[in-house]
Amino acid sequence: MKNIIVFCAHSDDSEISIGGTILKYSLDYNIIKLILSSGEKSTPHLHEEYIINERIKETERISRKMGIKENIYFHLIDGKLQKFKNDEGILNQVRDIILKYRPAKIFTLTPIDPHPDHRAANEITLNALKLSKYECPVYGYEVWNLIKLRQPMVYEDITEFFRKKVQLMREFRSQWISIYALLIPTYIRAIRNGGKIKKKYAERFFKLK
Q1: Domain tally for the chain?
Q2: By C-alpha distance, which of 99, 123, 32, 127 is closest to 70?
């Protein structure tokens, strides 16, 4: 089976934005999820080490249900990913992962997401890919996006997988505030995107490369 790499700033980014597509693609591809930040700043009233451990346990459990083959954790500082977008050591590590798996496709966040960690994840992905000299299609997915890119758009029918996507989003219980804030936008976006291709639900991606 061919590989797909999904780049995330935080472990729940992919389920929120590309969860239906992961469930669909996991039937035909090995899905490798690369998580840049531990998300340790997401719940300030709890100890960081506790949050990191809880998020890893959640991610591993949910990933098994999503059909993700492997999670790769970088444990970079939450809220500070911009510091690493040109870090030679980090970029070399990401480059090596790209060359190891030689993905048929890469999914990453967009350069216009309002969250600075999400924009940094996009830059780390593209900088490492450039360093690797490896060629494959790269697609940007949306989390907090309010506007759309001018790049070509691709829609994936996820009607069969949408209900399970939402169920698995809810399983990120350590992130319940952000997850519940995004539930209604997730429905609206899926319905709107589905209308573009005459399906009930769809996810939209921007062709970055």
Answers
A1: 1
A2: 32
Residue 92: partners with Cβ closer than 8 Å, 6 or more residues away = 128, 131
Q: What is the CATH number of the domain that holds 180?
A: 3.40.50.10320
Q: How confident is the model at residue 98 (pLDDT cuts 50, 70, 90)?
A: very high
Distance in angstroms (rounded) separating the CA atoms of residues 102 and 152: 23
CA-based nearest residue to 170, from 160, 179, 181: 179
Express each pLDDT in 1-26 by its tens digit. Answer: 999 999 999 999 999 999 999 999 99
Predicted pLDDT at 41: 52
CB 140 within 8 A of CB 118: no
Cα gap 19→87, rounded to integer Å: 29
Question: Which amino acid type is present at position 175?
Answer: Q
Give yes or no for residue 143 having a pLDDT over 60. yes
Distance CA(96)–CA(55), nearest Å, equals 25
Do 36 and 124 contact (CB within 8 A), yes or no?
yes
Per-residue pLDDT at 68 exceeds 80: yes
Domain carrying residue 50:
2-207
